[in-house]
Every structure is written in C-alpha cells, then in structure tokens.
Here is the input.
Amino acid sequence: MLAAELINPRTAAVVRSYAQRVRGSGRILNAVDAIAGDLRRDLGESLYPAHAASRPLPRVTTASLAALQDYADGEARWRAGRLAAAVALYRAALAADPGFAMARTALASADRSYIYNDPADCRAEYQWALARPERLTARELMAIRANRAADSGQAAAGAERREPSVGDGLHARRARAGRPVADPGRGGQLQPRMPGH
Here is the structure.
C-alpha cells in the first residue's frame, strides 16, 4: 500500500488522503503516478494540461528517481534531434546513479553516432553496462546486447536478418543521429543520414 496525505501548511491539518494498492515493487511508480493524477485533479488542474505534461517513464532499472527523470528527458531530446542536450541529460542521470546501465547504453549509442564518432568510448560504455548483469532485468540485458551488436555491425545472436524499415525504432533513431542506414532503394547500400532528413 502506498499512501500520501495533503497537509495544510498553516494548520498542519490533513486536507486529503490518497492510497493506492501496490502489487509488487515493479508497480510502485504506477501507484505514484495514480496518486499524483488524483492530487492534480483535486487541486483543480484540468485534465488536458495534466495529460499533455505527463508521459510514461521508461521501464529501466535505477535506484534514483532523478536519474530516471534525466534519462527519460534525455531520450525525448534524442528523439527530437537535440543530441547535445540528450547526452548532457544521460550524464546527469549517471551523476545521480553511477550504476545506471541503460544511461551508459544511451551514451554508448551516442558515442557511436556520426555526430560524436568515438568507438573507444562506445566500447567502454557497453563494457561497463554489461559488467554488472545482476543490476539488469532480462529485457535490459537483451536490449544492451542487441544495441552493442548493432553498433559494432554484428547481428544479434538469434536475430532474424532483414532490411530495416523506416518505422523500425533503431533504424529511425540511427537515421536521426546521422548514423548510416540501409537504403532499400539503393540495393541496401549504407547511406549516411543527418538529423532531420
């Protein structure tokens, strides 16, 4: 059970109480989000601004809410093509939680992009991210290994070989970051793409 109380600072009286049943530690953030939504509604915030300002947090492992927020903001900046801001936010996430493997993975992908082009740092970040698998979920471990394989030009073990389509997440992310992507219209040759093109 997760509970919160809204207290009048002048009188110390409880104005409202909120509670959410939590079934497992993986659902704590969902409960916090539900309580925050109830609180916003009770304080009179309209639903549209609350919905527009809210976005789901990434499903990644970190002990720090600040690191999680920085990582989520970094991912949003990366998708928007604001790469320098994204990298700064990934570094801020690591400052808040030095063991945050998915932030290391995001930095590794940035290091491998044509924008930063630092293969040595890319390898070091992946090596660090994979050094402590006990801190990772099975999904994160698989994602890190697949990203490392893609960034090193190897196919992930057991992955189906096919041409990436424009809708593919990794393909689209690489295209926005200036990474080479296969262009089916040119016989699958790698074509560099710049952000925004």
